Amino acid sequence: MPNIRSWLKYLGVFSFFWKLYRAPRARRYDMTFRALETAFFLPKDVRNVVVAHHYDLAYSNIFSRIMQFLAFKSLVWQKERVDILIVVSEYWKAYFEQFGFTRIEVVYNAFDIERYRRTPEEVARFRHRYGLEKKPVIYIGNPQKKKGTDAVYEKLVSCDVHLVTSGVKSLDIDTVHLELSHDDYITLLCASDLVVLNSLFCEGWNRVAHEALLCRTPVIGTRNGGMKELLEGAKQKPLEIETLSATVDAVMASREHYAEAGYAFASQFTMARFCHRTKEILCAE
């Protein structure tokens, strides 16, 4: 039987569209900011800034696919009203250029670099608390189909390692699955010897991969969407599922090299850089 409560929330879509239409017209604004998902009814005679993280309908439910599709089409149809389209990687800049947008700017994700530091004692306590001792720890992300976690599990389950997942669990795989606060999640990344991310959709960037690199933990990952720019810039190994076990062995044998190369790249994406770039774009004539 359908979950009535979960479907009732979709009735709010009518209120959602009305608010999107009404809000910028009820008062006079010099500039509006919209996410791609809300790029409906862009007003005239206002500077409209739209932020697009990524666009990929794969693995979404039917209602989400319809909403994403309509939002994307609405954005394209209204491109003359979009003064600035902000994207999060060069991949998405190239993607939207083919639809005729006149000004596309890349603003990369920002991170508080100091938040990703953990002492050896903190890492040791975390491993002991969750029974992650005596063997290497490999974090493989959220156990969801769109993240390709099941394929990674099948390739690495026979290895003598702790396979760890976290977050929303929609796959029945026998990993050490943890529900953590964000601070403990960062400690998990610091406690991991390696992170393996098999995203099957076009990522905007990939904050999990970036955060792992800030923790000086190497990442093996797919090259979908903006994730390609991140991992190639950080000089990390690409993920080929058929040869994953051999790639894991190669990275673990040179772990320090990949850890330092990754951190050197990832640590450039500071809050100060983000603020400077955003101000530069918005204040330009």
Please give the largest β-sheet: 5 strands, parallel
* CATH-derived architecture of the largest domain: 3-Layer(aba) Sandwich
Strands of the biggest beta sheet: in what spatial order? Answer: 7-6-5-8-9
Q: Please state roughly what percent of the residues sit in beta strands, choosing from under 5%, 5-15%, 15-25%, 25-35%, 35-45% or over 45%.
A: 5-15%
First-last Cα distance: 56 Å
Total beta-strand segments: 9
CATH topology of the largest domain: Rossmann fold
The geometry reads as globular
What is the total number of structural domains? Answer: 2
Mean model confidence by pLDDT: 92
Q: Note the total helix count.
A: 12
Radius of gyration using CA atoms only: 21 Å
Give the class-level CATH name of the largest domain: Alpha Beta
Q: Which assembly state applies to the chains in this document?
A: single chain
> In terms of structural class, how would the helical and strand content be classed?
alpha/beta
Name of the CATH homologous superfamily of the largest domain: Glycogen Phosphorylase B
What report would you give on this structure?
By secondary structure, this protein is of the alpha/beta class. The protein has 2 domains: 28-110 and 274-283; 113-266, Glycogen Phosphorylase B (Rossmann fold). The protein is 42% helix and 13% strand. It contains 12 helices and 9 strands. The strands form 2 sheets. It has a 5-stranded parallel beta sheet, with helices on both faces. The chain has a 4-stranded parallel beta sheet with strand order 1-2-3-4. The longest helix is centred in the N-terminal third of the chain and has 16 residues, at 62-77.
